[in-house]
Amino acid sequence: MSTAQTIDAEEAWSAVHRRDRSFDGRFVTGVLSTGIYCRPSCAARHPARANVRFFADGVAARAAGLRACLRCRPDELPRDSEALAGAMAAIRAADGPIPLAELAAGVGYSPSHLQRLFTRATGLSPAAYARALRAERACEALTAEGAVTPALYEAGFASPSRFYESVGDRLGMAPSAWARGGAGVRIEWAVVSTSLGPMLVAATATGVCRLSFAEGPEDLARRFPRAELAEGGEAFAALLARVVAAVEQPGQAHEIPLDVRGTAFQERVWAQLRQIPRGETRSYAQIAAAAGNPRAVRAAGSANGANGVAVLIPCHRVVRSGGALGGYAYGTEIKRELLRREQGG
To answer: Concatenated DSSP letters for 261-280?
Structure first.
């Protein structure tokens, strides 16, 4: 009986139990009592562990006498991946929005099926994905060009109003301020003592834009060379107290406003990090899948490392697939301590 060779059986069972889509395509789950095989993420009721065997693919499962599940249709996964890749490529190559019907026809799917597939895989509809992609291009063009007008046309926006409507809120500070290293933006800051060591906290009028350990105002100045930096006043002190409390008792940071910016994929990763419950961890592969690109494990790791507001966006909750702690920008001792506190240790 040809079983999956690339994954440990207990790891596979754990993936099946949590219906982890990041494992779809890596193996199929054979249920001997029913004679079917499924994707790891199949929504059907979980079988008894004693009745389960893992196979490398549908070919191996069929050779063992099993048939494909009609609910999750595991043999359609390659076709789904192909269609999804084709739709994404079409969106990236287009000069403007593509009607859903046209996009679906191009990959041979119905509009409703493509919409469901796309949303399940990326967390965004095709139209929202296209808008996020244009916003990402705008951010890159702003950084390269240093001027808003060329940047918006470079990114594919038809007018300044569309650009500011789509990108302005996402950036926090105005696009032109970002292009000029924070010019015109006031950032208040403080360095405070915590049980984890000295901590830098900085915030705009929108929210916290930097939380780091063992850094000072000179590091902040390098990140925002043209911003107005000022030691925090009375209003900032109230926000600072909430941030310190969230660090000393991690897990209660969702109410603290943030002003952070990144590429569309980075921001999806950061959003997924904030969804990890206190006391739990996720692997880089799980985060990549949740952010809409199961193959982008390395990119998910890079996005994790690009997080500028430690603890508030809990990148310390991401560990290696085998359970090893993995790296952390401020040292593994701080990461270990944050996890210990959240897990009640």
So the answer is: ---HHHHHHHHHHTTSPTT-
Q: At the fourth CATH level, which superfamily is domain 76-180?
A: Homeodomain-like (1.10.10.60)
Per-residue pLDDT reduced to its tens digit, 230-247: 999 888 999 999 999 999
| 72 carries an active-site annotation | no
Q: Tell me the C-alpha to C-alpha distance, in Å, between residue 191 and each of 163, 305, 328.
A: 36, 22, 20
pLDDT of 270 > 60? The answer is yes
CATH superfamily of 9-72: DNA Methylphosphotriester Repair Domain (3.40.10.10)
Of the residues 38, 42, 69, 139, which is catalytic? 38
Q: Is the pTM of this model over 0.70?
A: no
Same fold, 76-180 and 264-342: yes
Three-class SS of residue 210?
strand
Catalytic residue, chosen from 72, 139, 209, 315, is 315
42 assigned to active site: no
In CATH, which of 1.20.1440.20, 2.130.10.10, 1.10.10.10, 1.10.8.10 is domain 264-342?
Answer: 1.10.10.10
